[in-house]
Amino acid sequence: MAARGRHAWTLEELRQALAAKGVRADFSSVFRATARLETEGALRRVELDDGRTHVEIQDEHHDHFRCELCGEVLAVPCEASGAAMRALEDATGLEIHDHHLVLTGVCQGCRGGSLGRLVVSAAGAAS
Q1: Are residues 92 and 46 in the same domain?
Q2: SS3 for 125?
Q3: How far is residue 94's CA from residue 70's CA, in Å, rounded to a whole number?
Q4: For residue 116, what are the β-bridge partners?
Q5: 122 with 68, same domain?
Q6: Which pLDDT value is given to residue 25?
Q7: Distance (Å, rounded) from C-alpha 88 to C-alpha 114?
Q8: Which of 19, 9, 15 lies closest to 53 in space, CA to CA?
Q9: Domain with 83 in it: what CATH number?
Q10: What range defines the domain where residue 94 resides?
Q11: Based on the domain organization, do 6 and 43 belong to the same domain?
Q12: Rounded Cα–Cα distance for residues 47 and 56 (Å)
């Protein structure tokens, strides 16, 4: 998964990537392997509201963008952390352990090159 440079793989995409490398694995085997890696903390399940199970390598917290046209999934910097989370806890009385945010819209590739490059800074502002 790390060598492919992709983000948030579906189980079928993992099975196809293994097949491309000559590794025969049925869907059940991929499901069991990813479940075990998730239990061990190497993978994390990502829900993207598209009806499919996605997994990604466990790394620093980030949020996700899913293109409504092509389905591409991108990692985006998380802006809802630190002081913002503490303020939300104070305002609601909740104890927040984690969150998952999925932004949807149209990716740069689907928008076409004529609109210019969309850059998301570490502060999350698009320019």
Answers
A1: no
A2: coil
A3: 37
A4: none
A5: yes
A6: 92
A7: 39
A8: 9
A9: 3.30.1490.190
A10: 61-127
A11: yes
A12: 11
Q: What are 113's two structure tokens? A: 């090159």
Q: How many domains does the chain have?
A: 2
Sign of torsion, CA 118 46 26 33?
positive
Measured CA to CA in angstroms, residue 22 lies from 38, 91, 125 at distances of: 24, 54, 42
Residue listed under structure tokens 């980030």: 62
The verdict on 99 and 82 lying in the same domain is: yes
List the chain pLDDT tens, one digit each, 127 residues: 877 767 789 999 999 999 999 999 999 999 999 999 999 999 999 888 788 889 999 888 888 998 999 888 888 888 777 888 899 999 999 998 888 888 999 999 998 854 444 444 344 444 3
Check residue 113 and give its pLDDT. Answer: 55
Query: Are the beta carbons of 107 and 96 closer than 8 angstroms?
Result: no
116 with 72, same domain: the answer is yes
Q: How many other C-beta atoms are found inside a 10 Å radius of the C-beta of residue 30?
A: 21
Distance between CA atoms of 56 and 50, rounded to whole angstroms? 16
Name the token pair of 61: 């917290």
